Amino acid sequence: MRFIIKQARDKIAEIIEASTAQFIAQSYELYELPPLGSLVKTGDIYGIVCHAETAGIEPGRRPIARGRDEASEEAVYQSSPQLAKLLRSEFTAVVAGYKNGGKYYHYLPPQPARIHAFIYLCQPDEVKEFSQSFGFLNILVNASLPVPNGEVIAAVLRQMSRAHEDSRSFLVGAGKELANLLSADFLRLKNILGRLQ
Amino acid sequence: MTDKLGIVTTASLEKGVDVRLDVPVSVEDMVVGRYVTIEGQKRRFFGMITDVRLGVTDERLAVSPPDVNDPFIAEVLNGTSTFGQIHVTPMLTIGGDAKSLLEGPQPVKTIPAHFCPVNLASERDMELVFGKEDPQRFHIGNPLDMETKLCLNLVEFVKRSNGIFGKSGTGKTFLTRILLIGMLQKSKAVNLIFDMHNEYGWQGTSESGPAVKGLKQLFQSKVAVFTLDEENSRRRGVSTDFVVKIGYDEIEPEDIVLLRQTLNLTEPAVEAVYQLRRRFGKSWIQNTLDIEGGEDTKELLDSMSIHESTFQNLKRGLGTIRRLPFIEPHAPVDAVKTIIEHLDRDINVVLEFGRYRDITAYVLVANMLARRIYMQYQSRTEKAMAEGAAPPHPLVITIEEAHKFLNPEVSGQTIFGTIAREMRKYNVSLLVIDQRPSGIDSEVMSQMGTKITCLLDNERDIDAVLAGVSGKNELKSVLARLAPKQQALIFGHAVPMPVAFQPREYGSAQSYKDLVSSGRPRTEKADKDIEKLWE
Questions:
Q1: Number of residue pairs across A and B with CB atoms under 8 Å?
Q2: Model's pTM, two decimal places?
């Protein structure tokens, strides 16, 4: 995987579209996207990466195949250095909460993020603090996302569990919260639980 | 196990309260018949667990179960999507304010609010409801799965006729013995026990192990054993106080009516009994049996319009009675008078039947004696009322095989039917012991104050016992699940709410000691004396 976790305080992307519930950001480097389900922040607003894509910068103009005479995929990029500028990687994050006066709130923030605001990847300590309670699961369960919600929820919990020493009890707690949220939809719950480990 | 069980989720006064169990509480620890308290916002409720269920939030969970081999999934689902539920029937409430605290537990008229916490009833709660052992209350056993003493207010108990029911071999006799000991010590009532199987007087049998002591062995000075069969009593090594003999002239037509079925008498034969009594007066049986065939007889019968075959039928029946060895043409001592003398001296009387265990003897003797004793009581009570004097000691008559006396056909004619119906107007009440409560007249059943029932499994018997009790269906499930031995359900007048319990131990030296000493205030000397007694 080409994605390398950079220095803790390094910004990784910049917001190019923002609303109350979601924001879209462009990574500074091509393909350097945060993993699905990771916690990112911009200012005091926290988001969860729920979708990512890489495409040409001009809408409607698709890239063309260039690798027929090249020996490897790497070679394609080496022989056409302009590609790094013509393509871009973007990701969508669903807003999962915000911080105010040192306290985390798992609600939607009063104001959406600003365009060109910087985005940072949250470090394990912050992830752990953010996930002390599971209020954000409710937002994820009910959000309308470009990918299936269950996939995102499972990815988030897998990611977050790594920040906790006792990852199993974290997952059990989250699972119970989900069981309450999805009490009327057992099949969905079953699918998510199956993806947690 | 923690004491908090869960929270109230739904409730209705009619159908009871559903409680969702908390996660750490295992549904397998919840047993039907246990007591819980519900901490309402303004009052506390006492109730009994009457059903245990498994719940799911989504029906599909039951249709396509998750992979339970995965401990993670099992742990997540436990208490969230799948949970335990208990159904509680509220029985009593105690209000929160000082006034209602003084009033004590009241019958339930409302339900707890949503999500009130539910706890297992503690020993203190049970004590609050059933009271402590005191001069009126007698420890009869322990509520199921609890150490608390279940105390029965025997002064209240003897104010009504009561019943003890249960299949054969479920511990009715042991339970009765415990109650009799209690009444002997803690109520002002005296007991007259028609002891069909010789179980109460001197010693009783136990299915497991040696014979157990009877009342006379434990309370020498307060119990007299009367017998119908002196020889048998002597053979069993029982010292009896009096041998009961019954004279022909003491038998009344009513006694014969009661025996119609056992003596196989026809309806006209029963009618003829009354005519013969009118004709011959007191010695009618002797005279009837003396009638020989011949012209005179025919004329005599014709004059009373009794048919010859009817007469033969009756004569055969009376012959059966005559063959009973304790029946004599004329009794030397008036048995009723002797019994009443004993009762007046506050001495309890156990009448043993010896070998005459057949139902004819039992029904005849019990009915005859009880009727005459009752009449004495009636006249004395009325006299006492008129003169403003003290009425005679309350009397409790214990009868076994009660359905023979109290079935719908004869309950109108037997004295026991009258006693059960008129209740304690004349200070006489019944303690009815039976294994087929469905055979007892429903009118009599409905008049019984307190009912104690061991395991019953016949649907009709269960219905008969529980008729008219609120929360009948719930109690039914408790009753049907009692252990086959030494567990019973008590409900009615003398207890604030129904409770399933295990009767206290009876049969070991320690148990005798406890039973005897529980009645009187303890002094060091008494303790020492008792100590010596068991050495």
A1: 44
A2: 0.73
Which residues, at least 6 apart from B302, have a Cβ–Cβ distance to it below 8 Å?
none
Structure tokens given for A141? 């369960």
Reported ipTM: the value is 0.78
Q: Do A168 and B73 touch (CB under 8 A)?
A: no
Closest Cβ opposite residue A186 in set B60, B75, B79 = B60
**Does position A187 have pLDDT exceeding 60, yes or no?**
yes
Is A193's CB within 8 Å of B75's CB?
no
Tokens linked to B211: 């014979």
Closest partner residue to A175 among B57, B58, B76, by Cβ? B76
Beta bridge partners of A13: A27, A119
Nearest CA in chain B to A172: B76
Of A171, A179, A184, the CB nearest to B77: A179
List pLDDT tens digits, range B485-500. Answer: 888 999 888 888 888 8
Of residues A172, A183, A197, nearest to B58 (C-beta): A183
In DSSP notation, B524-535 reads HHHHHHHHHHT-
Q: Which residues of A touch B24 (CB under 8 A)?
A: none
* % of chain B surpassing 70 pLDDT: 95
pLDDT computed for residue A9 by the predictor:
65
How far is A172 from chain B, CA to nearest CA, in Å? 5
Q: Which amino acid is at B3?
A: D
Is the Cβ–Cβ distance between B21 and B6 less than 8 Å?
A: yes
pLDDT at residue B168 greater than cutoff 50: yes
| CA max distance for chain B | 101
Q: Where do the H-state alpha helices sit in B187-325? A: 215-218, 230-235, 253-258, 260-263, 267-280, 284-290, 295-303, 308-322
Q: What is the pLDDT of residues B351-387, one digit of tens each?
A: 888 887 777 788 888 888 888 888 888 888 888 888 8
Q: Quick one: pLDDT band at residue A4, thresholds 50, 70, 90?
A: very low
Residues of A in contact with B75 (CB under 8 A): 172, 175
Identify the three-state secondary structure at position B53.
strand
pLDDT of residue B532: 63
Q: Rg of chain A's alpha carbons, rounded to an integer?
A: 18
Pairing status of strand B499-503 against strand B137-143: antiparallel
> Whole-angstrom Cα distance, residue B243 to residue B259?
23
Among candidates B57, B64, B72 on the partner chain, residue whose Cβ is nearest the Cβ of A172: B72
Q: In angstroms, what separates the C-alpha of A182 from chain B's closest C-alpha?
A: 9
**Is B303 within 8 Å of chain A by CB?**
no
Using CA coordinates, name the residue in chain B closest to A168: B72
CB contact under 8 A, B80 and A176: yes
Residue B168, amino acid: S
What is the greatest pairwise CA distance in chain A?
Answer: 58
Rg of chain B (C-alpha set): 28
Residue type, A46: Y
Q: Is the pLDDT of residue B473 over 90?
A: no
d(CA A151, CA A174): 15
Question: Could you tell me if B299 lies within 8 Å of chain A, comparing CB atoms?
Answer: no
Q: Is the dihedral of CA B229, B231, B234, B239 positive or negative?
A: positive
Between chains, do B76 and A172 touch, taking CB under 8 Å as contact? Answer: yes
Rounded to a whole number of angstroms, the distance from the CA of B86 to the nearest CA of chain A is 20
Q: What number is the average pLDDT over the span B285-305?
A: 74
B534 confidence band (pLDDT: 50, 70, 90): low
